[in-house]
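queue> holo job accepted (uridine-5'-diphosphate)
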Amino acid sequence: LKGYKLPPGGKVVRKLDKLYEGKAKIVYTTDQPGLLIQYFKDSATAFNGKKKGTIEGKGAANVRISAYLFEILEKAGIKTHYHRLLTEREMLIDRLEMIPLEAIVRNIAAGSLSERLGYEEGRRLKKPIVEFYYKRDDLGDPLLACQHVLELGLVDGVQFQQLRTLSLQVNDVLQPLFAERGLELVDFKLEFGFRDSEIILGDEISPDTCRLWDKKTGERLDKDRFRRDLRRVEEAYQEVLKRLASS
Ligand code: UDP
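queue> job finished
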């Protein structure tokens, strides 16, 4: 068993069993109740798993990008599941009861929004839009209206508004942060869960889950390079990490 030192007092947390394996991450239980380890893989999928591949160094870049952004969000008063980095690919997180929704925040039209509204990619929205998609592979992760979310009983009306508010608050922190580093935060995906009965930000925030465009050149520095078979996929993840780290 591998043990990791935990400050303060050098308490050790041990990795136990695989709890869940997704497309880009593995979650393990630990010997500390309420704490899990999230391992970031190099594997990538797109188009509902139809396209598969490996992006060298992606896991190591994403764990650091996510850790950095969660730390900034915590400082801004937004509660996250993040505790600390453990290894080059692992972070210690709170165990949450995940809500099966993807909250998408958009500042600029791209991807499925461009198709839905007939907007050209790159068109700035009047104000940020928050959408919710149902995390159900068998249904193809459909877009949900508020009343669908309530019908499904995933959250109540108050919690639905909290999800919206939290998503916009994350945007208010991240959009200027990326802008200062020459990156346009076009859109991104968040996932939330319950810790006790409180809504907490979970999952990851990385170029796998954000669209980031270079402000000067318009170059895409995110998973769209993989989706669209563009060159220099690995370099895009390293470039985002470099821009965040050099501050
Ligand atoms: N996204 C994600 N996981 C998903 C779907 C979308 O992380 O399962 C992110 C995606 O990377 C982008 C944003 O959410 O930053 C909006 O994606 P969109 O709805 O435009 O879907 P796409 O065009 O990527 O299929």
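queue> The mean pLDDT is 96.
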